[in-house]
Sequence to fold (340 residues):
Amino acid sequence: MELHILEHRLRVATVKRSDLLPFIGSLVKLALLHEQSKSKFFSCTQTSLEFTIILDEEGFKALPEQAQNLGMVIQPSTWLVLEAGAGIGDEDEGVGMTTITRNIIVPLANQHLSIFCLSTCQTDYVLVKEEDLQSVIQCLSPDFRVYREVDGNTELVTVNMSHNGVNEAAEAKPATMYPLHFPSNHFLVTSLQPDELPKLTSCLLQVLFYPETYDSIETSPSSKKEKFVSYSLIDDRISLVLDGDLLDRFPDNCICVDSSKERWKMVKTGVQNLGFEESGIVAQVAKPLASEDIPIFYLSTFLTDHTLVPEAEWEKTLSVLSQRHQGGPEEHDDISIEDP
Fold:
């Protein structure tokens, strides 16, 4: 298999919902006016608590000056993007989140290396801190041919075996087990065509940046629904995750979906502030599901993580995750698996 370190250098930031207004102009340009933006990597995820923004250096320049004084919290690390692919002779091996979990996420968790995951309709990305890159390469090089994009060219990476980045005893340290929660939403995972954006601008503005859009959807604590929308524009490819109940906000035939399209259910990890220095958070959910070949779509945010699984795999997902936590409750709609 091949592992590509893409040219993007990313920053991760968060804005409280109440502090979003000063940033809407910049975010609209990055999300919807891609032809006017030099940014090649932009992702925005809205949760009930905050907006997580992932963007490259050009996108970061587009934000208001003194963004931190306006309420934005910026994680200090620069993040690099890993993308796995099948190499020559590997054509029969699919490269999805199941393969990525087994070959990237779990090995990095075992080495206590922090990651940030972003799935899109087109591919799955694993983000790693720039300062951890040599340790990441050394950890993954036994299973991958590692390439790096430099000035538009792809170069084979020579592994520095003198770098003492792999800790043979690292597996002895257990990861923190966070509570899992299961919202009742039925999510849609879809793609958009860039040339359709002019028709969808008004709808996307409401769905992405104005939380009151959810007012017509029952999201009270008793409904057990989660406010969640994620939009990614990466190298002119658009991916969108939203509650299926919001689909009627869009014009007919403008979103790549039909009546038989698979809906997804969510597993939410943690309540808030999982921490960027921790490791194994993604593996906590992804590893047991991958071991059962359950497809997953994974979205990390600043405070919490979100795993989407096909609705057809939901009962199996609950069974697998309940087995990973002692004393899992029987009522699936109310399930909140706490630390054992």
Remarks:
- Helices lie at 24-32, 57-61, 97-110, 133-140, 197-209, 281-291, 314-324.
- Residues 327-340 have pLDDT under 50 and may be disordered.
